[in-house]
Amino acid sequence: MFKRLLVYLVSLVCVCAPLNAAPIFFVNDVSGFTSQAGVLSYDSFEYLSHSESSPIAFNGGEFTCVTNTYWPCPNFFGAADLAAESARRGDADIAAYDGDVSLGFTTDQTGVFTFDSPVTAFSIFIGGAGNILDGGDLVSNLITLDISVNGQTKTVLSEYGNVSPTFPSNTNFIGVIDLDGISSVSFFGLSSGRDAVYLDYMGISSGAVTVSAPTNLLGVLGLLLLALCNKRRV
Description:
By secondary structure, the protein is of the alpha+beta class. It has helices at residues 2-16, 30-34, 82-89, 215-233; strands at 24-27, 41-43, 56-58, 61-67, 78-81, 101-106, 109-127, 131-134, 137-140, 143-149, 152-160, 171-191, 196-205. It has 4 helices and 13 strands. Strands 1, 2, 3, 4, 5, 6, 7, 10, 11, 12 and 13 form an 11-stranded antiparallel sheet that branches. A two-stranded antiparallel ribbon has the order 8-9. β3 (56-58) and β4 (61-67) form a beta hairpin.
């Protein structure tokens, strides 16, 4: 009986902790992501020139546009020189998250990262969501922004508004880990106006990733096993 129960409990751990079965998302949890993502390489896209064309090649893949409305790609799509835009507008709060260049798209489009070979972890910082230009002034415009990885969709921003143009005051983060491999990542948003969204400082890992097991489950099973072992000794 004891052996049968022991086999059952071990099987339960395997069934209830399928660590590699689906993407694991980290929404605005930088420390949680980096603690589990392994060794990351980062890309700030500084080698890209200002461009409105799709696809845009980056180191290890490309960023492409899929239109969601009658607006054709690449309507406001591509590498954005935010430092130049900041100087033009005289607004310091628009620089890229790291360096001068970021990737941009609007909520009537889908921005897709496609990798030359699958990665196990992906992260990026999001700037400028939640506002539109109205008569030359930025006004809050609620946006819901989603990410799709391996058929799973996660909401990054829900009914989010922020009148700051982009980085650093208007910054969000998304990270995802999938040990089955990530070949592409899609960003798409919904808002009442055409909201410009910027993506910068991409982190990727193609190596081993250690994902923590559900500690509560393992702790409970450990106590049960300990109690059973002690009972056997009596």
